Amino acid sequence: MEPDQNALPPESLPSENTEAQRATSPRRASGFRSALQPALRWETGLAIVAVAVVVFGGLTSSQFLTSANFFNMGVSSGEIAIMALPMTLIIISGEIDLSVASTLGMSSAMLGFLWSKHWPMLAIFVILAVLGVVAGLFNGLLVTRVGLPSLAVAIGTLGLYRGIALIILGSNTVSNFPAPYNAIGVNPVPHTNIPYSVAIFIVLAVIFGVVLHATATGRSIYAMGASPEAALFAGIRVKRVKTMLFVVSGLVCSMAGALWTFRLSTAVWNNAIGLELSVVAIVLLAGVSIFGGKGSIIGVVLAVIVFAGLQNALLLTNFNQEATGIVTGGLLLISVFVPNAAALLDRARGLAISRKPAPRSAIGAAND
Amino acid sequence: MSAALTERQDPSSAPARTSSRKLTERVFRIRESGIIAVLIVFVAITASIQPRFIDQANIQFVLSNTTVYALLALGETMVVISRNVDLSVGSVLGLSAYVSTNLFGHSPGIPVPVVFLVGLGIGLACGIANGLMVAIGRVPSLVVTLATLYIIRGIDILVVGGNEVVAQTLPSSFIAIPRANVFGVPYLAIVIAAVIGAGAYYLRSFRSGRELYAIGSNPEAARLAGIPAGKRVFTAFAISGGIAGLAGVLWAAQYQTIDSTAGTGYELTVISAVVVGGVAIFGGSGSAVGAAVGALLLSTISSALNVLGISPDWDQAIAGFLLLLAITLDRGISVKLTAALRKRSSGVGT
Questions:
Q1: What's the complex ipTM?
Q2: Is A1 on the interface with B (CB under 8 A)?
Q3: For every residue of chain B, which 3-state class applies, written as one string?
Q4: CATH topology classification for B2-10+24-343
């Protein structure tokens, strides 16, 4: 193993996947617009798919295109959408966080436990925020300071945080939350038809979008995903930024845990178990490269619409709800294979005896 | 990993070479016998608090609980050594357990070996699908098997519907498999130990087995050295799937009630066992025997919690924590080793 997992030699980069490469590609006509074009192409496709899903849903069920149903769609995908935002930044920076659903579960269990001990709700929120920050910080420090691959950390804390949820709450269920809080989960924001979770998603999407696309920090996230070593030499504090991303992810997931608990008005240790799949699926569907360095928040918003629409259409068609993992998993596979389809075809034809190194990142190696 | 580091040494500098080999040997000792020492100390402490822990019934219980995990750990070891990961083993186990043993109810009198073959076939099919996507698709195995973890579980849920296989439909010869003893040791544990021994020998001594280590140490170098990396990785996934399929049938014989939740979350325990057993999560290092001992340690801990009256709720957190501890220690060792080797070779150079 290399002395430093983060220090990849520049030539081993997934060059066809990075914005840096795009910017220097010989086909470049002029600056910014052409640099964004390939990304736009994926997002345009996604927008078409989103429309197709809505049309498909409308054709299969007369209830699909009703405002009540749109509300349900938002309610049932709100937390997943919220968690997808920090995940997007983490994957663009070349890492992955699989502990998001477990962090949500841990936060939900803590909320239930403290409420059953008659803590005031405000104090509980403070504890949840601290819990989320600590969980994220733990992930971040293991990845950046100890130098472990986020793949391994993610699997470990996925189990650890879920295990802590189980220790906190055991097999108990807490459900006697006060009505005003439960209302946050099931009622719309006053004078609108927007669920609170969707409103929070919209606000966060704007914030994350601005940070990612319009600030130096955002550009540095792309840079470290494209080439951690080059980013480091360019004076970007790679470790600090990555740690911050994990902390933000922990905090956001902990917050999503409160939303989830109020929506179902139940705190159980296995709340949102397995949800990391949906979050990763949305982010990759959004056109974010699993190798880092590429993706956009607009893509994530579109992917959320596609995802919510599909889940909802399945719900209305009486598809076994527990088996929707087939669709989500399929979506994930499609999202990672379609962008590589051209290269795959080349390889299948045996035309490309590739001497290019395989793309590598801290989250795992691809093989050929 | 260690082997690669040793080879980087200047071959002309004999003294440095022997001391670096000593260093490597020490790491190997930590990897293999360290975990056994932990196991012994742990058993001794628990037994001194609660002597019931080492009576024959409990040892048998722990051993038969370990069999399925140890078997899964063998397949996972091959995958992890090649710097990949297979998250779908729990789902494959569940699907195989239901579909294969459901045959007993549908066609009574079906021979037990046929049921095992069906389980193996299901597992192989899943493993081949994983292997093809990872090897040809060049997508990180984490993403592929995260998807198939849920896809296969979803298929399982659709196939099972609301049904379950119950003990009454299983023939007594099938149920007897995990319960047969030889001198108090579960017969199955001996068979599994032999299978793991064979697997360890294959990884250690066969060319294609060694090539898995090479791929895991440095995929690029392995490819340049002419190793068919894609083929080897594909085979590792196929074997891991096949093993998970067989483990599903054994799981069914052991627990006898099979619904669509069979094997849920097993991937975490299995990967923890493999990593705790000294297989480096970055690939290229570790042994199948270590992984099996890791599995034994995890089920011993789980049984100790039970015997000491601690809630089984702690199991999962402990597995996750041990995994993190193991990879952190491994990382620390490899950083020290690299630094030590660098220092030495630069000292020799001047």
A1: 0.81
A2: yes
A3: CHHHHHHCCCCCCHHHHHHHHHHHHHHHHHHHHHHHHHHHHHHHHHHHHCHHHHCHHHHHHHHHHHHHHHHHHHHHHHHHHCCCCCCCHHHHHHHHHHHHHHHHHHCCCCCHHHHHHHHHHHHHHHHHHHHHHHHHHCCCHHHHHHHHHHHHHHHHHHHHCCCCECHHHCCHHHHCHHHCEECCEEHHHHHHHHHHHHHHHHHHHCHHHHHHHHHHHCHHHHHHCCCCHHHHHHHHHHHHHHHHHHHHHHHHHHHCCECCCCCCCHHHHHHHHHHHCCCCCCCCCCCHHHHHHHHHHHHHHHHHHHHCCCCCCHHHHHHHHHHHHHHHHHHHHHHHHHHHHHHHHHHHHC
A4: ABC transporter involved in vitamin B12 uptake, BtuC (1.10.3470)
